[in-house]
Predict the 3D structure of the following.
Amino acid sequence: MDDYVGEQLDVLAARKRKKDYVVQSTLSGSEFENMRIDWRVRLMDGNWKIVDVAIEGISMVVTQRSEFASVLRTSGGDVTPLVEDLRDKWTAFKANQSETLATN
């Protein structure tokens, strides 16, 4: 989200969906013209948490699930490559967070 400077996020509506709420919004700015973003949020332990983001109708949860299934399919059902990939991504994320905190 740090890269989005100068853009405007407009919340259009929110609707209840089972145990979640879907918050409909649009992102507009220098590179975007009314990009639709739906945030699925859930009250967990007294705090609102984002549990999915759908950008232009493409769910990040569904996309990630598909990526996991592909890795498992490629490895013949062995979870080791998936776990290693997730560890690598977590390590890169933590390094990026430390770098961002150091420069801010």
Summary: The chain has a mean pLDDT of 84. The chain has two domains: 1-56, 60-104.
